[in-house]
Amino acid sequence: MKCCIISTLYPPNIVGGAEKVTAKLANALVKAGHSVTVITLHDSSEPKIEFVDGVKVYYLPIDNLYWPFQTAVKPPAWKRILWHFVDMWNFKAASRVGKILDAEKPDIMNCNNVTGFSVAVWNEAKKRGIKIIQTLHDYSLLCPRGTLTKNGNLCETRCGFCVTMSLPKFVASRMVDHVVGVSKYVAAKHREFSYFSNAKQSVIHNICELPQSRDKVSRDAAKPFTFGFIGRVEHEKGIEILLQAVMHLQQGDWRLLIAGRGRDEYVNGLKTKYPNPNIQWLGFTKPDDFYAQIDVLIVPSIWPEPLPGVIAEAGARDIPIILSNMGGMPEFLHMGVRGVALPAGNVQRFASEMRCAIEGQGVMAAPPNMQHWQDELSEKTVIERYIACYQQTFSS
């Protein structure tokens, strides 16, 4: 089967987890004998074609006011609004994609994040009789911010701005033949607002790349008990909840490692506001190096993350996890990952659970069911489900 994958970003351009799991999907499809073409964006004025791990990748320039990813300075509000206005239906970006579809002639088009392309790419596939599968990694079709938050707070209802800016996406969602949620939560959230009314529905979790060794590494009692946070250092990730919780812990033989980057002004402000010798700011760190140092992973997000890969990465190493009960995160616990879900934003509960962990109680004593959830997120299982989805959609 010939498959065209659309993804806002693709390696080596990586900001979050969506582009990583999209690359894993593309690579696994190629290994399974399918022909795969990826169309993505890059921060250049010229298009280019490269082969990345055997996958043919079209890198296109972004047809909008500016490149919005990994920017050191946040653009002014008027410019951001205008950017999203263009992204409601980007004719030029869709035209570029249409020409590639004419050249490649895929059987199906599997869209992932389409920010920067706009949902106008669905129309290009529809005009050519190409079946459309949309994989939902976030809420960008419901909310221009992609997080269902505003000013750092979770939106209880969608505001007028979101509804207005998302209207073309809602209407166009009727063109999609099959929609795949990476978690039950993200799929249900789109159904709640009546998106994809003509589409078949599936939930297929992301591929979890397991470490080379799955042997349980006993913690070294001679070293400080180590908590870890890894990811983008930003408000929605709950970093301030974690730092506030740390302030409630007594100074002692423990430490907190923070791996990841954020806007310089924001990160420097956090370092000033929460001075603590037990906190170490690592910046960008390779995941293997990070996980080898920690005893417990903290995922304190205050936005409903669909299915954060860091939980799977830690779980695969049998590292216990303290996480927020937001979005699709608790679904990992239902699959057997060792952890505990706490009310999002509850500083006292996070501090209490961290104290229990230091004492060897709570999450440290919870038994995992590794085989079940690792099978659920294995490349074999995920690819079998995607191929079945493609074949079912193509033949319908």
Primary descriptors:
16 strands, 396 residues, alpha/beta, six-stranded parallel beta sheet, eight-stranded mixed beta sheet, globular, 14 helices
Walk me through what this model shows.
With 396 residues, this protein is α/β, with parallel strands linked by helices. The protein contains 14 helices and 16 strands. The chain has helices at residues 17-31, 77-86, 91-104, 120-127, 160-172, 184-192, 239-247, 264-273, 287-291, 309-316, 330-335, 347-358, 370-376, 379-395, and strands at residues 2-6, 35-42, 48-52, 55-61, 108-111, 131-136, 149-150, 153-154, 178-181, 200-203, 225-230, 254-259, 279-283, 296-299, 321-324, 339-342. The strands form 3 sheets. The chain has an 8-stranded mixed β-sheet with strand order 3-4-2-1-5-6-9-10, with helices on both faces. The protein has a 6-stranded parallel β-sheet with strand order 13-12-11-14-15-16, with helices on both faces. A two-stranded antiparallel sheet has the order 7-8. Helix 4 links the parallel strand 5 and strand 6.
Helix percentage: 25-40%
Largest sheet: 8 strands, mixed
Q: Tell me the number of strands.
A: 16
Strand order of the largest sheet: 3-4-2-1-5-6-9-10
Number of helices: 14
Order of secondary-structure elements: EHEEEHHEHEEEHEHEEHEHEHEHEHEHHH
Distance between the termini: 15 Å
Structural class: alpha/beta
Low-confidence residue ranges? none
Provide the β-strand percentage band.
15-25%
Radius of gyration: 21 Å
Q: What best-fitting shape do the alpha-carbon axes yield?
A: globular
Query: What does the average pLDDT come to?
Result: 91
